[in-house]
UniProtKB/TrEMBL annotation:
<dbReference type="InterPro" id="IPR032394">
    <property type="entry name" value="Anoct_dimer"/>
</dbReference>
<dbReference type="GO" id="GO:0061589">
    <property type="term" value="P:calcium activated phosphatidylserine scrambling"/>
</dbReference>
<feature type="domain" description="Anoctamin transmembrane">
    <location>
        <begin position="292"/>
        <end position="875"/>
    </location>
</feature>
<keyword id="KW-1003">Cell membrane</keyword>
<dbReference type="InterPro" id="IPR007632">
    <property type="entry name" value="Anoctamin"/>
</dbReference>
<feature type="transmembrane region" description="Helical">
    <location>
        <begin position="734"/>
        <end position="753"/>
    </location>
</feature>
<dbReference type="GO" id="GO:0046983">
    <property type="term" value="F:protein dimerization activity"/>
</dbReference>
<keyword id="KW-0472">Membrane</keyword>
<feature type="transmembrane region" description="Helical">
    <location>
        <begin position="465"/>
        <end position="492"/>
    </location>
</feature>
<dbReference type="GO" id="GO:0002040">
    <property type="term" value="P:sprouting angiogenesis"/>
</dbReference>
<dbReference type="InterPro" id="IPR049452">
    <property type="entry name" value="Anoctamin_TM"/>
</dbReference>
<keyword id="KW-0812">Transmembrane</keyword>
<feature type="transmembrane region" description="Helical">
    <location>
        <begin position="303"/>
        <end position="329"/>
    </location>
</feature>
<dbReference type="Pfam" id="PF04547">
    <property type="entry name" value="Anoctamin"/>
</dbReference>
<feature type="domain" description="Anoctamin dimerisation">
    <location>
        <begin position="66"/>
        <end position="289"/>
    </location>
</feature>
<comment type="similarity">
    <text>Belongs to the anoctamin family.</text>
</comment>
<keyword id="KW-0325">Glycoprotein</keyword>
Amino acid sequence: MSNNDIFEMDSVTETEEMEGDNELGMIDEEVVYPEEFLPTYESIKEGTTVAKAELTEFNDKEDSLFFNDGVRRIDFILVYEDEDKKEFEKRHTFQRKKRRREYFEASLMKMGMELEATKSVIDEKLTFVKVHMPWDVLCTYAEVLHIKLPIQPNDLSSRPSPWRYLSCITKYFYPNEDLIRKEAEFFTAPFEKDRLDFFHVRDRDAFFTESMRSRMAYYILSRAPYEIRGSIKKFGITKLLDGGVYKAAYPLHDCRFNVKSKEEGCPNERFLLYQEWAHPKSFYKMQPLDLIRKYYGEKIGIYFAWLGFYTIMLALAAVVGLGCFIYGYKTQETSTWSKEVCDPEIGGKIVMCPQCDRECKYWRLNSTCEASKKLCIFDNFGTLVFAVFMSIWVTLFLEFWKRYQAELEYEWDTVAFLEQEEPPRPEYEAKCLYERKNPVTGVKEKVPYTACGRCVRVSIGIGTVLFWILLIVASIVAITVYRLAAFFAFSARLRAQDLKELEPLKEYVTPQMATSVTASLISFVVIMILNILYERVAIWITDFELPRTKTDYENSLTLKMFLFQFVNYYSSCFYIAFAKGKAVGYPGDPVYLLGKYRNEECDPGGCLIELTTQLSIIMGGKAIWNNIQEVLLPWVKNVIFRYCTRVASEKVIPRWEQDYQLQPVSKLGLFYEYLEMVIQFGFVTLFVASFPLAPVLALVNNLFEIRVDAWKITTQFRRVVPEKAQDIGAWQPILQGVAILAVATNAMIIAFTSDMIPRLVYYWSFSVYPYGKSSGHTMEGYINSSLSVFNTDDFSNFSMPIGKVPNMTTCRYRDFRFPPGHDRQYEYTMQYWHVIAAKMAFIIVVEHIVYLTKFILSYVIPDVPYAVKEQIKREKYLTQVILHETNLKLVSKRLKPVIDDALKVTDTSMAMDDLELGF
């Protein structure tokens, strides 16, 4: 087969590919490409020579961050596999990849970037292309990306820290200042090439930081064309990676994480981050946020700042929650209603009605003694105080975070980041085939879809999300059916009198507990499976919607994923809290689900203990699963990769090849980290009234999470492409929404799930001794008051228990109904309506008090500290002065020739007048 035949086959294949696949193709007028300097697609097919990266030998400097000349810094690395090493029958595919790679590299070189290629030391098939951005290119794209750079040292005095008097103690909780020095503060302004003289340039090599250089390099790589056929342009490193043209693209770490670089002038920032941040021995130290931001970019820095702030605030909530738990644990033995349940003379003589039809048997109330004691730990008056405290805590957390975020925005030069024009995503630019008039500028611009097309895309996205949410609801219904069937089975087994081997467990294992634990485990497994499936669906929907900018893309994906995760994780908890045991009827007329399964009932103490069990299983299981995914899997993959690519010890492996052996960073970056923490935030706030230990578990998890994420990103992954970020994005309004919802959910849990309101109503209105002696305010007799009486002869044939206790004519059930023989038998008593009224009044009063407090706190606490406002004003003033002076000089420079000419004309005219006058 000749080369011409190969090209013909390839041409057909690529034509079909252009028509059917999802390549980056566009007709673009806004982005300027150097196609006039590049060969066309057809000329490449005919063998035209294009500019290529210079192929050099590795100079055995393993820590070098420069080209072989030791002068030009490496700003990015591209990795590809040599196609010539492949078998011949597949060569036409690799020829296409080779042409695209050559065209892409030629585009980069014509755009001003310098390339140098080096063969792999480990695998001769691999080639590493080193990318360098010269000074002029850096200046050009710094202006394009509105990168803010120093113009003058900060001359405003900073306020002294309130902890300065304790510095002799607090210094041990901060990174070593001898290793990580505090950087000088500058006023900054968006860079402009024409005003370079006004910027604080001490050293050109250090003026642009490594993260800035990597960000600019990635911007160019994302927009450099790799194929132009007529008016169709295809561009972007992303599609080349997806198509296998390149195997990897990443910026370099500056050194090994556990060994200092031997290169002169290397900052060794990765080594410092590992020693003072990611190493387990530094778990008690505050995070070096400025160095994190400098090395990884503002987006990574703001995540770790938020996570650290959240963890510090959790410490306060954990202390109060732990105190509430200890109070409940200490009072469980002295609780009046718990003692009545366990008392052989009270709970031991109360025979409860069966909780399912036919197979379930009568049971003694004191068989739930241990469960009622455990319930006292979580269902007490301390829980009410803690729920109100958490409603205030979440407001303080969000308000103080806004202030801290404002400080970081100023320090990290992201104050006006969102006000600047964010460049569109390459995927968006590639689909711009239609024109529309910009309503702001009035200029025609390219868009990827019409108004009707956008509606269709959004409608399909919304429909798909709703379908998956309904799928979750269906899974919850299935788990509910399992609960009913499992409760029936456990009741029949655990209550059986002939199973003597289970007798020791009857005191601890109840049908409700066994059903709750197994259903929670099944629910957790279903949640994990649906998460994996929906993750891909959400990404596909967001890609299909084609958001314009990366911020729009992330916000859209964030909303979809959170809505799904919210329903997925919390629906089972909402069911237990607000649905289970609320509509069960009474033994003579029970309520059935789907006309077959008798609805679940709660224990005599309520469903709160089941909600606590559900929360603990999901929170604990989620934390374990996430750590396995985030830590163990990358570590195992790296170990296997290093084992498979091991080389002789005498060989020196260069810096770029060491980084290639690490795991690639996910395209979504920190999305899953934020999602994990926000879901945890929901557990901590939405259901904290049922589980005061939730903040404690979250605090312990986050203390590990910070260091695990730090260790992972520093040691196991390639360096992240730095990105700008002003704040935590769409997660901020989500957190605010969860905080508002948390007030309502906790009030409703205390009112409807906890047994606190019925106890308070009994204490203040219906408290009497069992034999009718008035007692004032006491909790004695509450259990007897909360259980109604049912005549066993009133069972229907379908629900009549198989076994019947001799000489027993009545049984008890949890409700407030009139006894048999009464004129209104089995109808609700006045106590029932008192309890309902008290529950509604409690919800209204608590919600209004807490919401009013939240509003006052939000108003009193300013979002931006006063000192930061002063610094922002000072920086704007200096920027305006500099721009004004520069504009005056430019105007003067432009007008000088005109003024000189005018003066010459004037002088000539005056001379002529003098001559005419005879002087």
